[in-house]
């Protein structure tokens, strides 16, 4: 996806506008392109051409419920990737358009051959991961290692794009963050068994509820655990959103922690900006 970590905000906005204008020309649109419609049309075309999308071509928008401006909106693409409005907006409609712009730019960029999961892509990704985790080439071919599991997941999704692969990656990021992978290892579940099982599990309300229960149990052992982690998750989400980064992992962490907090007795409170979202 578009790497905006080293791109100033003004350059990022110019890049987004350039992609939107290019899309308008290619679709023979006149005047100002409706980026919300363009984004939906883009994924509908991919679906119609046979792209393997778990949830069809549905693009989902979520707006933060606030009584007054500024407004923030998130958009989740059919493959599972999420993006958000680049700035706080004066209207919900503008926040929705801002989120659609960054999502459309990443969707178009994602079509480049370098973003498709091929044998060359897998080799490069695994080599980079080996450097980060100080693993050997031999480790990458063993299914009982983290790097081996990563290679296995990539190989199972050969031919898909990184945006279409995002939901599966987020599932394993959450399992690691939540401590579930460690718990399964302690129960002597092999990494291959875990990968095989969760490769076919959707990131749904049942999975979020189970993870929320784990955090409630931690809260009983150490009060304020959920609030402290929720503060961090919100900061991470807002920083990533304003930088134009992919947001599915921090957004799911926020949702799971908010769900856990909502199920605690009323004596537990959260001192911060609690983001309530609604489907737009």
Automatic annotation (TrEMBL):
Q: Family, per the entry?
A: Belongs to the LIX1 family.
Fetch the SUPFAM superfamilies from UniProt: dsRNA-binding domain-like
A Pfam family found in this protein is LIX1
**Protein name from the UniProt record:** DgyrCDS9421
Which GO BP terms, alphabetically? autophagosome maturation
| Entry-linked InterPro entries | Autophagy-related_EPG5, LIX1
Spell out the GO cellular component terms annotated for this protein, sorted alphabetically and separated by semicolons. Answer: cytoplasm
